[in-house]
Amino acid sequence: VGWFDCIIFALLPLGVLTAVVSAIRIGGPSWLKAIIGRARENRAIAELEVMSSTSHEVCELWNGVGIVRTIGRPHIAQIIYLEEYSDNVKTCGLYRLGFLEDEETHVFHSRATPLNLQEEEIAPNISLNLHGLANSKDLSFATLIGVVVQAGILIFAGYVSYDHTFEDGLPSAEETTKGHAFPLFAVGTFFLSLGMLFCAQIVDESTEEREYVHPEGSGKKLGARILWVQRKENVGDQTFDAYVTFGRNSGADDTLDRILTSRRAFDKRVDDTASDNSGGKKLFATRSELITILGTTFGLIGFILQFQGLRSMNWLVSIAQLCGIFVMTALRAWLRRGMIAVPISARVLDLHELDWLSVTL
Fold this sequence. Notes:
- By secondary structure, this protein is α+β, with helices and mostly antiparallel strands.
- It has one domain.
- The chain is built from eleven helices and twelve strands.
- Strands 4-3-7-10-12 form a five-stranded antiparallel β-sheet, covered by helices on one side. Strands 5-6-11 form a three-stranded antiparallel β-sheet, with helices on one face. The chain has a two-stranded antiparallel sheet with strand order 1-2.
- It is elongated.
- Keywords: Membrane, Transmembrane, Transmembrane helix.
- The chain crosses the membrane at residues 6-28, 139-162, 182-203, 290-309, 315-335.
């Protein structure tokens, strides 16, 4: 996730209140969480439902039908096969993710900041490597379309509001547009988009992503195949059977050009927060809390102003706004089209997963 994703989310948003609540759950101060009834919520619950990361508390498992995010620490191993190193006598091209960053191997090149936890202690990201993320060209295209559609709606709303000859020509127009309608709509749209941008940024900053590419650059194909071996066990209140799951790519060769990880980020609080003499009455203690407050305030104010502006304008503007939301919703679904990818999986005998894997390979 990056700025393009946040902008796409902020343009003609769908589910404004859900976005505000999600941002508060992730980065809001305690008093704001108390307002929405989440003052004592476990961080793992918010990570499970809102974030894309896995951690020592949240994991992803295959249940035979789809990827399930749940709370727990299962026994699951991620194995990466690199065709370029298949002739290696010691490894036969099979690696663990932690080994690939060894200074002596230089198999992968990591483009991110160092993580705060050992990779071996954290469950692997199955969903991210199963379908991957949208490429930069698709994101740029969707962002451009979103800006054009949003600007077009504003221009159309201004034309309808101030060109009375157009409104008089409509047979169903019962009254003229009020003078304050367009300013309310325009200002509300700006505040709403700004608030949603802040909310999306809070969720984005709650995780640290790593992208492993070929050492010679992202232009060269990595040629990796990835698989996950999970044991049969109970995680939370669910039972998962033993499976060996193989990741797939959209290409014909099913090899990946990058491997992604997403981990929970840690809040960077002010060192003297605990010793502050204000008695815990500060509105915010971190940058994330400040941005969450701004995003919530701008988002709700913009939503109200935009709604009041639409009520006072011609009905055609409301139809145009609805069509714009449909267009952006379709674009977001198109960007996440890879999520429908189904991996190749095999149910295996418990405690004999590696035996099955060695015989099959």
